[in-house]
Amino acid sequence: MNIYRKIIPNPSSLRTYLHLKRYFNGSLYEPDYLEGQKSKIPLYDTLNIFIRGYDYPILENYQKFLHNMIKNMDINVEECWANTPQHMQISTYKPKSEVVKAQYNLRVYERAVQITDVSTLQFPVVLRAIEASLPTGVTVEVRPHEESDEEKRYIPDSELNALKQELDDLGGPSKTKK
Hints:
Blueprint: H1 2-7, H2 11-23, H3 32-37, E1 43-53, H4 56-72, E2 76-93, E3 100-119, H5 123-133, E4 138-144, H6 147-152, H7 158-169
Antiparallel strand pairs: 1-3, 1-4, 2-3
C-alpha cells in the first residue's frame, strides 16, 4: 500500500484507478476474455510448401511424409495438391560441333502442401525438419500463398474453350425472352 500512496495519495482514488484499469484493460468494445484467447506469439497466415523433382514415386512419398510430419507437429494442414508436370527436352551435342549426341525428355513434377496458422516459434523447426529429411533430387520452396498459386492448380479444358470460341464466332448465345 505504501507504493500506491506515493503514486496516488488518496485511497479512494486508488480504488477508482484499479477499477478503471480493470475496466479498460482490453478494447472498449470487446470483452476481456477474447484477448486472453489470442496467441501472444505471432502467427503466419497461409504458407505454401512446394516440392519439385524428376522422380514421381519419390516425390509422392515425400509429400505423404511431409503431410504426416506437419500434422504430428500440431500444425494445421489446409490442403495438398499436385500441379501439372513441366515437360523439357534436353539435347547434348558432340564436342565442337552442332551434331546432336543425345536427346532426353524430362518431366518436372510438383506437389504443394498448404499450412495455416503456424507460430513463429514452430516455423524454424518445420524448416529444419524439411531440410533434414529432403531426399536427393527434390527441391523445396516455401512462400506465402498467392492467387496465382490457386489459378495454377487447375487445368483449362481446351474442348470447352473451343466450344465457347465457336459459340462466340456464331454470334454469341441466343437471347430469347420468355
